[in-house]
Amino acid sequence: MLAEGDYVAVGVxxxxxxxxxxxxxxxxxxxxxxxxxxxxxxxxxxFPGADFSPIAALCERIEVPxxxxxxxxxxxxxxxxxxxxxxxLCANMRRGALNRAAIAHGCNKVALGHHRDDAVETFLxxxxxxxxxxxxxxxxxxxxxxxxxxxxMLYVPEKEMRAFARRQELPVFPRLxxxxxNSRRAEVKALIASLREKNPDLSELxxxxxxxxxxxxxxxxxxxxxxxPEEHRDETSD
Length: 238
Known about the structure:
Elements: E1 6-11, H1 16-28, E2 36-44, H2 53-62, E3 66-70, H3 73-80, H4 87-104, E4 109-111, H5 116-130, E5 139-142, E6 147-150, H6 158-167, H7 184-195, H8 202-212
Parallel strand pairs: 1-2, 1-4, 2-3, 4-6
Antiparallel strand pairs: 5-6
Helix pairs in contact: 1-6, 5-7, 5-8
């Protein structure tokens, strides 16, 4: 996901996941073998009561440049178009604004805060509501823009993201979206939670199924055989 010279824009919504991703990547940049830089970008959707000053203060403290991009996504989606199922359109518009802002600031990669449970929920959403087996990819190159999307927190369960954000006292936004708790994703999240009461390993099993599937970018790499130094044969010694 990361290479020498990368400039990574972290999409910071203000939730626990994006803030955790920002802090983790910033710390990682201090010792990762390949040098990369980090920038935080927040898309102001126009939700009433949104205040980005706590995020700005965090970015100043950890020495990460921060940009807020004002938009009218909330007005367009909820008031003008009055979408009955606004999540898809809202996400696409937000992602487009984030990618454009990343390009404008010279970033070649965009990091999103999706965790393991997000992948499992997306996997089931595609099956239940689209009738197909699909999920977002860990790494996605967008050929139109030249930006690469990365999801570095995919192996982390949501509960660990929540615990980390709490321990670090990250300035997590209150949930401002009118659809909060009423979306299809919320329904699937509730279903998984109920099924885990009898099968605590459900999320791990579903995530493993995604990895073992034929979905692009998800297949687990073949295990590498470790050769001990004494087993290495010098062909010139014969």
